């Protein structure tokens, strides 16, 4: 029995070490209609090592996500845009708690999305259009996938067109270099949204400048196998013009238009991805061999949302005083060899930060240039210096020498590195900084020379005056004759 237990523990350790995701392999997929339409996408997840459980929203149990306080799944996929009410075990508060416990969420929506989904997206700083609105582009659409409504929008490279064709945001933490190098566009059929000013939310796929969002056109099917749509030749927006979402909004400074957006939680960097097209995951577009970028974009979005890419972790941090010589020691209450409990003003601190990146199923050195910084903070940063990387065998070691300011108090040695697409690196080391002790000041301060010179000049002047006064001959008094 002991041998069997040891073998099971060893197998679990090997499986965890070879995991494709940094957080786990268990995936729960909530599919509203037609799970078979996503068969190719789910088969690709299973082929990469994920354990996919597919169910309907009305079939989930009360302990689907949590059981006895433990998280039962590592990732949740929700392809249920028409769901009017969230199940009790999947309501927004439970989903937020799932994210706070380290889970990840991938949401696929469509023009048929319900008001519940719009309210849920607002919690993350995203504003989707109203129900039955979708993205339309009369200049850039795929004739092979078009149904007469010009809603099969081509997103990506458009050659020498004067207006931008949108496409992927150049973020190598989310998309691979191979995906970013593909020049052919991909098809998007769905709904767009606005990204608010939240610093935790950022767009991943931008719409073309010639696209706009309007009512879903009425589609009719001709007997000659031709799709037609009524009212397609004129622009009739659902809202007022100032509320109309267009592709040009993707380049605004305050509220950006986006097709796919992501959010990373501030505390644990859990990831949420909102995709405005469930058709991108269905077999019709996912298996489109004529457009290889179609599958590559979906796979990269899934890999990033499941924390396969852009995952960082802090292994350790250390700091100590940089000594001038081996004899430069402090009292025992302050420091021991290699450990500093307290610093003195104007000390030089040697700071080390060891970071690892999850890449290809294992932890190793950081592959990209991160450029983190170290700050000595007391309410506000007093000193900030860059951290210089040095690759080791299994990690990257960042180090810096920081000279403390001429200010005593409780300081925080802080590394606060946050970039879109990467796990946040936040490390705080609190340490007190004391002034000079009474016996640590030099015997003679250079700033006291003017006062010493003034005292010496006064004494010398007085001595000269007394010497001259005493050495002067006495004068005889003159007598007057009356």
Automatic annotation (TrEMBL):
Pathway recorded for this protein: Protein modification; protein glycosylation
Name of the protein in its database record: Dolichyl-diphosphooligosaccharide--protein glycosyltransferase subunit WBP1
On assembly, the entry states: Component of the oligosaccharyltransferase (OST) complex.
Q: Which Pfam families match?
A: OST48_MD (PF23358), OST48_N (PF03345)
**Where in this chain does the record put each OST48 middle domain?**
339-471
UniProt domain OST48 N-terminal: residue ranges = 26-304
Q: What is its main location?
A: endoplasmic reticulum
By which gene is this protein encoded? WBP1
What is the protein's known function? Subunit of the oligosaccharyl transferase (OST) complex that catalyzes the initial transfer of a defined glycan (Glc(3)Man(9)GlcNAc(2) in eukaryotes) from the lipid carrier dolichol-pyrophosphate to an asparagine residue within an Asn-X-Ser/Thr consensus motif in nascent polypeptide chains, the first step in protein N-glycosylation. N-glycosylation occurs cotranslationally and the complex associates with the Sec61 complex at the channel-forming translocon complex that mediates protein translocation across the endoplasmic reticulum (ER).
Q: Which residues form the signal peptide?
A: 1-19
Domain of life, per the record?
Eukaryota
How does the protein's chain sit in the membrane according to the entry?
A: Single-pass type I membrane protein
Q: Which GO terms describe its cellular component?
A: oligosaccharyltransferase complex
Family per record: Belongs to the DDOST 48 kDa subunit family.
Q: Which InterPro entries match?
A: DDOST_48_kDa_subunit, OST48_MD, OST48_N
Q: Name one GO molecular function term.
A: transferase activity
Q: Give any single GO term for biological process.
A: protein N-linked glycosylation via asparagine
Which stretches are transmembrane? 449-470
Q: Which UniProt keywords apply?
A: Endoplasmic reticulum, Membrane, Signal, Transferase, Transmembrane, Transmembrane helix
What are the subcellular locations of this protein? Endoplasmic reticulum membrane; Membrane
């Amino acid at each position: 029995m002991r041998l069997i237990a040891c073998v099971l523990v060893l197998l679990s350790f090997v499986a965890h070490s070879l995991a494709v995701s940094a957080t786990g392999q268990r995936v729960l997929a909530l599919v509203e209609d037609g799970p078979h339409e996503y068969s190719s996408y789910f088969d690709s997840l299973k082929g990469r090592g994920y354990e996919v459980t597919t169910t309907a929203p009305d079939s989930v149990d009360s302990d689907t996500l949590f059981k006895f306080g433990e998280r039962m799944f590592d990732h949740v996929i929700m392809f249920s845009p028409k769901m009017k009410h969230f199940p009790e075990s999947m309501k927004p508060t439970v989903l937020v708690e799932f994210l706070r416990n380290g889970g990840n969420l991938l949401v696929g929506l469509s023009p048929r999305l319900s008001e519940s989904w719009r309210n849920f997206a607002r919690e993350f700083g995203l504003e989707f259009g109203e129900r039955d609105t979708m993205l339309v582009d009369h200049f850039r659409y795929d004739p092979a996938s078009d149904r007469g409504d010009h809603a099969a929008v081509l997103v990506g490279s458009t050659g020498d067109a004067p207006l931008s064709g949108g496409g992927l945001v150049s973020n190598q933490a989310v998309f691979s270099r191979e995906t970013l190098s593909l020049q052919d566009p991909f098809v998007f059929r769905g709904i767009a949204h606005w990204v608010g000013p939240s610093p935790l939310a950022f767009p991943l796929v931008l719409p073309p400048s010639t696209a706009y969002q309007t009512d879903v056109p009425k589609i009719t099917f001709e007997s000659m196998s031709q799709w037609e749509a009524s009212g397609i030749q004129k622009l009739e927006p659902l809202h007022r013009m100032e509320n109309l979402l267009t592709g040009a909004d993707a380049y605004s400074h305050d509220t950006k238009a986006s097709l796919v957006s992501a959010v990373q939680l501030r505390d644990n960097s859990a990831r949420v991805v909102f995709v405005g097209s469930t058709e991108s995951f269905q077999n019709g577009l996912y298996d489109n061999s004529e457009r290889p970028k179609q599958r590559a974009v979906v796979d990269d979005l899934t890999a990033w949302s499941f924390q396969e890419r852009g995952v960082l972790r802090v292994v350790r941090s250390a700091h100590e005083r940089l000594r001038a010589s081996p004899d430069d020691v402090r009292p025992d209450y302050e420091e021991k060899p290699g450990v500093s409990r307290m610093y003195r003003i104007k000390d030089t601190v040697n700071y080390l930060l060891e970071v690892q990146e999850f890449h290809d199923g294992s932890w190793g050195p950081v592959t990209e240039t991160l450029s983190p910084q170290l700050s000595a903070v007391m309410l506000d940063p007093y000193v900030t210096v860059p951290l210089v990387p040095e690759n080791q065998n299994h990690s990257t070691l960042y180090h810096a020498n920081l000279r403390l300011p001429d200010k005593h108090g409780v300081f925080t040695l802080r590394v606060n590195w946050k970039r879109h697409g990467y796990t946040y690196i936040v490390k705080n080391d609190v340490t007190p900084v004391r002034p000079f002790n009474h016996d640590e000041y030099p015997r003679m301060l250079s700033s006291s020379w003017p006062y010493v010179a003034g005292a010496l000049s006064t004494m010398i002047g007085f001595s000269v005056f007394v010497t001259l006064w005493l050495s002067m001959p006495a004068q005889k008094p003159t007598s007057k004759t009356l």
